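Much of what follows relies on a compact textual record of a protein's fold. A record is reproduced here so that you can trace the correspondence yourselves:

. . .
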Amino acid sequence: MDARLNYFASPTAGKALKYFMSAGKALKESPLPAATQELVALRVSQINGCAVCLDMHTKEAAAAGETAVRLNLVAAWREATVFTEAERAALALAEEGTRVADAATGVSDEVWELAAKHHDEGQLTALVMLVSFLNAVNRLNIITQQPAGGYEVGQFH
């Protein structure tokens, strides 16, 4: 499968992606725990069906020491006992922040309050930015049918 567009060969995409990559780097350096960031990235990408992001974030999380059990249970996090309360709150916010059309009201007060209970303002800000960022990146990849499977850990660092 070939991508519809080669972002790395496009001068327009190259200019825009420079800022996207910079935003992604800033989020990686945020106070939101790295494990939470990868779990959220996986869940958002699962919901959106972004194979290339699933490939990347699964491999990055595993390389950072995330267990196969937790990676495999992200899709069923509500029923899984392997996530902390803070991670569960982040995953709930990620789901409602991704499924805004489905929820009609966006992120509920209950989910927001739970996330705020477990994350300080810096972490909560990073979480909101991360969910928004991933939704944008997922769409860039899905629209252009970027192929999955060839990502190597650290490829974009």
